[in-house]
Each structure stands twice: as C-alpha cells, then as structure tokens.
Fold this sequence. Notes:
The structure holds 2 protein chains of 2 kinds. Chain A is 71% helix and 3% strand. In chain A, the strands form 2 sheets. In chain A, strands 1-4 form a two-stranded antiparallel sheet. Chain A has a two-stranded antiparallel sheet with strand order 2-3. The longest helix of chain A is centred in the last third of the chain and has 27 residues. By secondary structure, chain B is mainly alpha-helical. Chain B has a domain of 199 residues. In chain B, the strands form 2 sheets. A two-stranded antiparallel sheet of chain B has the order 1-4. A two-stranded antiparallel ribbon of chain B has the order 2-3. In chain B, helix 1 runs antiparallel to helix 8, helix 1 packs across helix 10 and helix 3 packs antiparallel against helix 8. Chain B is globular, with a radius of gyration of 19 Å. Classes of the chains: A mainly alpha, B mainly alpha. The interface between A and B is large, with 57 and 55 residues.
Amino acid sequence: xxxxxxxxxxxxxxxxxxxxxxxxxxxxxxxxxxxxxxxxxxxxxxxxxxxxxxxxxxxxxxxxxxxxxxxxxxxxxxxxxxxxxxxxxxxxxxxxxxxxxxxxxxxxxxxxxxxxxxxxxxxxxxxxxxxxxxxxxxxxxxxxxxxxxxxxxxxxxxxxxxxxxxxxxxxxxxxxxxxxxxxxxxxxxxxxxxxxxxxxxxxxxxxxxxxxxxxxxxxxxxxxxxxxxxxxxxxxxxxxxxxxxxxxxxxxxxxxxxxxxxxxxxxxxxxxxxxxxxxxxxxxxxxxxxxxxxxxxxxxxxxxxxxxxxxxxxxxxxxxxxxxxxxxxxxxxxxxxxxxxxxxxxxxxxxxxxxx
Amino acid sequence: xxxxxxxxxxxxxxxxxxxxxxxxxxxxxxxxxxxxxxxxxxxxxxxxxxxxxxxxxxxxxxxxxxxxxxxxxxxxxxxxxxxxxxxxxxxxxxxxxxxxxxxxxxxxxxxxxxxxxxxxxxxxxxxxxxxxxxxxxxxxxxxxxxxxxxxxxxxxxxxxxxxxxxxxxxxxxxxxxxxxxxxxxxxxxxxxxxxxxxxxxxxxxxxxxxxxxxxxxxxxxxxxxxxxxxxxxxxxxxxxxxxxxxxxxxxxxxxxxxxxxxxxxxxxxxxxxxxxxxxxxxxxxxxxxxxxxx
Lengths: 356, 294
C-alpha cells in the first residue's frame, strides 16, 4: 500500500479489552479501589472545606460524564444535549420535592427516569436518522428544554427565576452542609459508576461497541442497531438526569442557565481529555478539567488584574482556552486520552522488569 | 393581508441570511467531510475582525472589509495547518471533535481579547429600510439576500462543474479514495476552511450591520443549523430553498403564534420543522443518500 496515510491509532479503543471492561481484575486493583474509596469517604473529616466542595462538584459532574461516556464513547453516538438532559432531571427532582414533598432517594431516580424519557424522544429518531444528523437532533433537545422552561407559566417551573428547594433529608439528618452534599454525591457517583462498569461488561455494552465500530456491520450480526442507539441515548440521558437531580439537591437552586449548550460541549471535552471509551477515562477527564477550573478560579484575582475587561466571565474564558487547547492537543497527540498514560504505567509496573 | 405578505417577505430575507451562515457549514462539509461545530464562533470572530479594523483602528470601511477577508483567509489556512494537517489519516470523528475544541477555544479567546461587553458594529449598508408600496424591507437583509443568491449559485456551479469543485467533492465523499486518486485532502481542507471563513466575514457584515457585537453573536450559528440540516449537508443550491422556508415559517410563527401564547415559540419552530423533515427524509431535502454495504 502506497497510500500517503499515516496509520494512526483509533480515537476509541476498538475492542472492550480487559483494562476498559474489567476494573477489578487482580488483587492490586481491588486494594487500590478500596483505598481510593476510603480516602474519598474520609475526605470531609480530614480535608479543607474548599476541597470538599470541589470534589463534590467533580463527583456530580462525573455522573453526567460517565453516562456520556456510555452514550458517546462506547456507543459512538455524539450527544450534544447532555446539559439539557441534566436539566430535565434537575427540574424533575426540584418539582417533586417542592410540590409533592418527595424524599430525595425517590426524587433522584425519578429525575433520571424523566430525563431518560426525554432522551427516548430524541433517541427514537435513530430509527431513521444517522450520523451527524442524529447528533443535531440532540441540539434540538437543548433548544426545546430551554424554550419549554422559559415559556411555561412561572408557577410550573419558575420560568427564568428558577426554583429553590429544601435540602435532602434522611430521617433527622439534613444533607445541607458541604459534608452532607458531598456524601450524597459520593454515594450516587459510586453507585452509577459501578453500574456503568456493569453495562460495559453486559451484552448491551458489547452491542454498543459493535454499533460504534461499524453500524452497518452490526445489523447483520444480529444487533438491533436503531434500538441499540436509542438505548444508548436513554442510558446517557438517565445518567445525566441523575447527575442533574443530585446537582439540584447540592445547589438547592435550579435555573435554566445552569444547563446551556456550552455545558454539553464541556462535558464532551472532559471525555476527550480523559479518554474516549473508558469509564475510568471519564472520571480522569472530569477531575482534570474541574481541577484546572478550580486552579484558575483561585488565581482569578491575579488574572483579573491582567484582563480588566472580563469581569465575571474571567474563569469561564480562561478555562475555555485551556480546555479548547487540551481537546485539540489530545485528539492530535494522544487520542486515547489522559487515562492511557495510567494504563501504560500500570502495565509497565505489572510487567517489570520485562519491557512487555 | 398586507401584513401577512410583509411578515412572509421579511421572513424570507432573514431566511436568506440563515442560508448564508449555513453556507459556512455546508461548504466546509462539502469540501472536507468535516462538520464544523465552530462555524458560529468563526462568524463572531470575523465580525470582531471587521470591528477591529473599522472601529478600533478607524480605517475606511472598504479597506477594513478587504483586510478582514485577508485575515479570514489566513485564519482558515492556520486552522488547516495547526489542526487538520496533524490529523491526516485520523477518523472523521476525531476531526469533528477538533472543531468542538475550536469552538471552546475561540469562545474563550474572544472573551479575553475583546471582552464580554457589547460593542456597536459599524453599518456598512445604510440602515434606512427599502419601502416598496406598503412593504418595509430592511436594506441590509435585502442586500444580503442578493449576495446569498449570488454566492450560492456561484459555488453551486463551481462544485458541480469545475475540476477543482469535483476534487473537493471527492474529498467530501471519502478521504482515502480521494487520496488514492491523487486528490490532495490537505489542499481541499485548506480550501474548505478558507472558503468557510471568508463566507463568515460576509455573513457577519450582513448579520451584524448596525447592531452590536459580542462573543454571544455566535448564537446565529445555532439558528442557521436547522437550515443546513434541512437542505442536506452536501447541498449548496438547496440552502436558499431551505433558508427561505425556515425563515418564512419562523417569521409567521413569531407574528401569529407568539403574540397569542405570549411566549417565543419561534425560537424552536425551526428545530421542530427540521426534526419533522428529517424523520421523513433522513438526509434533508437535497443531501446525498449514501448506500452502505458491509
């Protein structure tokens, strides 16, 4: 072959190989996971308050991005409406807890379910629409969500004023402070992440990978292609909805401008930076981007002195520049994302002193 | 009755503006197979270039426009050189994702360089409306519609009849096959982005004429998206048809539905219309219907 093409690594891993699908192979991994969970559980007792609130934001975001990883990274369907689905879950939980006095452990899954129903509405178009046209229908989801919230009577969803809700209550314990919100986010993030590993290992996960790698070949292999794509959108929307509902309880205020199209683009950016197709990659991407955001926020006053015209847009602008450059960098230099470096490190540790 | 005609005609003119903005999406897709999510940002950036030359530096308007077009050409070449040349041979998926990165990067860069405040954009076209009998038509949009029809018909002819156009078309069908037939994907991508950016300058001048410009001006890209989808991502000629259709539907909704329900249904009507049409014709009105075999 004399094609002047550089042979490149695929953007997404082509097969569900061991490190992507099985998180707990080997006793080292199990010990590492237990240690990480223990550290996360102890963080509010030992760490500074600022760190606790940053990590809870990371945990909430990771619920959404892990869902997006299943939707985009595993099933290959670009979803530009993650923020809208998050918003649907958020508003559902807020309305349920405000009007029906629904407990949080019921309102959060119901938020996910309503987002999944909204996702079904757009995923179902996959039966006829393919490729980028399908991605565009998720932008329509974003538009319709925003327009619906703003145009419905203010007594329903609060219109542009937003909704304020009571903190989540577990018996007599109000999950209101930094620590309470943190444990709520940690519980749901851990639960949803383990669920995602389950999905990746199941027949649905394999069907997602088959549709991603070649949807016209997946059909003759006995996979219901349109159904699988619809399911992918529903799973992604469910995760986003749960993330949004937890978000509603952590902020205790829901407004439409928290769920802009730009948020969805950021979520996709986190996927690319972390690594497409790997659930651990989604977590790494969230931690990296939110971490950079936090660092830039804390240096905000210095930056503000340099660019006085920016005002309150400063953090947004600087994170955008870093994230945009990082997306391009990773797609060009390391399409498998940050998490790939971790896999390389782990493999060389396991194979030491041999090279392979 | 005259109101109805007025609304419909104004809608058609706005639709032509949408078509001009959507032309940026379609030209880049039609010449390099990449869907450019950052088109709205490139349009806003082009607008800021015109603003900088005309208001910031105080140059006469024709010189500012010429300089903006040169800068836009350089921008297109730079995007190809810095991003897409390094992605040669990568899946189209990765290239589309890079345009998402470009979107985020440009939004941040515009905020840093020009700030978030709205700035008055110079009026290159006089602001007085054209009045024909009882019809009131904005001059900039009328001018824009003429330019849209001119550019789309020119590009439509070029893409379908000339050797260069057919080479670009080959690239948008399949990168590998185009390469093996001796068509340079690199040059096609550069041409696509130069065309896309230059069209953005023209689109920005007509859209922003006499209004104010801010990084949020890029939202026009989202308004034009349904037009590109409706026409089909490969169809240049279909854009004007789709643009006028969506413009008229939106304008009539704004005039007759919004006033009744007191909301803004006109914002989402183009998207609903697009969804409905895509369900019947999955590749838009005039898009390529690809046959897929394993």
